[in-house]
């Protein structure tokens, strides 16, 4: 089996976690791993001890975390926060039971979500403001600093200050916009599109466009490097990593990391180093160091077990993953 | 890749009996579990396990093509449902009476994630024997729904005379001669006539009734939705046919509602089958022509404002 190109393996450092249902999202609440499952349960794992609770009546559709709480949106029309000890708080409930397709949380604890075509933003004191955006937003993200929300919608991205009466700024680009990310330095907003492309804006007096195309599938997973200089994306048979030094990636070629005969479904940058976790639709996980493109195998390919969720813990010592067939696991990096 | 979940699209003008049919499908003793996506959530009184309200959100793609549209709400809902594979065996999408079926059908061709996880089984259109002819006069949606159908449930036949029934059937056949047509009272018909049709499966395109292919000679005004069929008794040259079909779907795609074809390519032992929705075409080489089968090339187009003679001459010029 050993050839010169076979990646060195980290497999023996992975502890399996039996999740039992499609893992929608994985997040570390300090040392507790919280897994949001498509059957409505939230599973908590802490060094081998498992505990699960039914948090949504139906499925969980979207998740986010501020490191203290797991926030989930469900097809029961509810937004719920679960803390590391398992205590749950209902943040919102839609009377008509409309799906909550997107949730996001800011560093200061503000939460935003959608019900149908309306976006709701709840500041850290609990005051909720709503904005009708005309189409169902699937991408919501707070600015890295300040109480400002980017909303991916039809034909562009809105930038909204929920605490003011000001009309949102609209970054227009024809077509549907799905997921949205904001660069750590606040200079760039990037969205994924059903045309198998990313579209970005360099913010400023006159926002300028960035087009990142050539994906065979929709790039639905986006991750910034800790220094904000690289944006990794899924949607191809390798992780596509765009350079955001200076004016951004226009006119520059992206890095392609971990090319295999499978589609990349999730990417997650290490929180402190230029190391990228790459998950594929065939269940394989590779760890790739950008500096020398060296690859480590975390999980071998496993039929029907495509990677659906990644979470690095805050210190970057542990990587959790979840899959579509209900498998999950925690990789603890060996001490160097 | 695991098994794709079949999706049945249920359409029909307001009051034709969609909800009656849906309730029949859901309550019949078939042992299957369905996820149901409905536009008029809450009004139907559906006895289903998993009922989701959709809001008919059409996404135009940014490629500048007005006929390449997909249903954004459908993509989102199917994506959510796919996370719960194993909870249901099939999906039924009920669209409103005013909905255009094209963006629904195109969603399964254009969106790769949807296409990987699900397959469009058939478009079923419920029509009202008493009022359909009026709707065909005043409602373009009703024509589109007939044109798109793989299965037509001609309901309320007990409310019309034999002559009226014959007249409404011929109006339907002028638009769409190849759909399976069932006459019903209160939508009573066996579920196996509706589900697992594989109508969008390229392998099943030969289910087009051969008789109907030869009966397309109706005289109508050019702005009406109608079908036309063309046959070349032998092979076609793929070097001529492929550019031609691409050209007409690019130029006339917005007016072509559906197209289907089975072709004998020169020197190719396998049948080439294709189908399309507007300008989106899906085609492949399928099984071998059988020894007792006559190699011939056939094409059916349903659309509006199409020049039949021009299309016929164009197709015939592709003969090998």
Give the key terms:
heterodimer, A: 336 residues, mainly beta, B: 320 residues, alpha/beta, 7-stranded parallel sheet, 5-stranded antiparallel sheet
- The low-confidence parts of chain A are none
Q: Which shape of chain A, going by the Cα principal axes?
A: globular
Secondary-structure-based class of chain B equals alpha/beta
- Give the strand line-up of the largest sheet of chain B: 3-2-6-1-7-8-9
The percent of residues in helical segments of chain B reads 25-40%
SSE topology string of chain B: EHEEEEHEHHEHHEHEHEHEEEEH
Described by strand count, sense and barrel closure, the largest sheet of chain B is: 7 strands, parallel
Q: What is the average per-residue confidence, as pLDDT of chain B, rounded to a whole number?
A: 85
The number of helices of chain A is 0
* Oligomer classification: heterodimer
Name the beta content range of chain A.
over 45%
């Amino acid at each position: 089996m050993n050839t010169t190109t076979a990646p060195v393996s980290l497999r023996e450092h992975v502890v399996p976690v039996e999740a039992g249902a499609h893992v929608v999202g994985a997040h570390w609440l300090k040392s507790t791993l919280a897994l949001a499952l498509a059957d409505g349960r939230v599973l908590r794992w802490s060094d081998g001890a498992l505990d699960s609770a039914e948090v949504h009546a139906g499925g969980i559709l979207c998740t986010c975390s501020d490191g203290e709480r797991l926030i989930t949106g469900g097809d029961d029309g509810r937004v719920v926060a679960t803390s590391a000890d398992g205590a749950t708080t209902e943040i919102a409930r839609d009377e008509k039971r409309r799906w909550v397709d997107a949730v996001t949380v800011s560093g200061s604890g503000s939460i935003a979500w959608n019900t149908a075509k309306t976006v709701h933003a709840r500041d850290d004191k609990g005051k909720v403001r709503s904005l009708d955006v005309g189409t169902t937003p699937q991408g919501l993200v707070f600015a890295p600093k300040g109480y400002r929300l980017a909303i991916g919608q039809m034909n562009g991205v809105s930038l909204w200050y929920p605490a003011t009466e000001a009309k949102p700024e609209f970054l227009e680009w024809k077509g549907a916009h799905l997921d949205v990310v904001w660069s750590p330095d606040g200079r760039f907003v990037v969205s994924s599109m059903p045309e198998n492309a990313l579209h970005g804006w360099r913010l400023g007096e006159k926002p300028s466009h960035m087009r990142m195309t050539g994906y065979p599938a929709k790039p639905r997973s986006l991750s910034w490097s800790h220094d904000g200089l690289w944006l990794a994306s899924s949607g191809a048979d390798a992780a596509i990593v765009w350079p955001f030094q200076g004016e951004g990636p226009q006119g520059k070629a992206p890095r392609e990391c971990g090319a295999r005969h499978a589609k990349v479904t999730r990417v997650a940058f290490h929180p402190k180093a230029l190391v990228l976790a790459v998950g594929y639709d065939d269940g394989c996980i590779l760890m790739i160091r950008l500096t020398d493109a060296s690859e480590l195998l975390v999980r071998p390919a496993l039929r029907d077990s495509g990677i659906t969720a990644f979470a690095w813990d805050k210190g970057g010592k542990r990587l959790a993953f979840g899959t579509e067939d209900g498998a999950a696991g925690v990789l603890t990096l060996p001490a160097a | 890749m695991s098994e794709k979940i079949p999706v049945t699209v249920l359409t029909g003008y307001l009051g034709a009996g969609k909800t009656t049919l849906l309730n029949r499908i859901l309550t019949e003793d078939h042992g299957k579990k369905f996820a149901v996506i409905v536009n008029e959530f809450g009004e139907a009184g559906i006895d289903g396990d998993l009922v989701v309200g959709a809001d008919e959100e059409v996404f135009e793609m940014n490629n500048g093509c007005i006929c390449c549209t997909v249903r954004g709400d459908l993509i989102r809902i199917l994506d959510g449902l796919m996370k719960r594979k194993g909870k249901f065996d099939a999906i039924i999408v009920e669209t409103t009476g005013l909905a255009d079926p094209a963006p629904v059908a195109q969603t399964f061709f254009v969106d790769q994630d949807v296409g990987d996880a699900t397959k469009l089984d058939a478009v079923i259109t419920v029509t009202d024997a008493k009022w359909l002819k009026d709707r065909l006069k005043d409602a373009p949606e009703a024509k589109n729904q007939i044109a798109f159908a793989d299965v037509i449930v001609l309901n309320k036949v007990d409310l019309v005379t034999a002559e009226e029934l014959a007249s409404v059937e011929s109006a339907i056949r002028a638009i769409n001669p190849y759909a399976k047509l069932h006459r019903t009272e209160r939508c009573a018909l066996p579920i196996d006539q509706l589900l697992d049709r594989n109508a969008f499966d390229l392998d099943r395109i030969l289910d087009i009734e051969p008789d109907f292919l030869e009966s397309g000679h109706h005289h109508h005004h050019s702005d009406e939705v109608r079908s036309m069929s063309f046959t070349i008794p032998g092979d076609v040259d793929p070097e001529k046919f492929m550019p031609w079909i691409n050209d007409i779907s690019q130029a006339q795609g917005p007016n072509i509602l559906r197209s289907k074809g089975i072709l004998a390519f020169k020197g190719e032992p396998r049948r080439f089958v294709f189908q399309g929705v507007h300008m989106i075409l899906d085609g492949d080489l399928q099984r071998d022509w059988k020894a007792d089968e006559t190699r011939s090339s056939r094409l059916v187009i349903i659309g509006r404002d199409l020049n039949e003679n021009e299309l016929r001459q164009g197709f015939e010029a592709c003969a090998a």
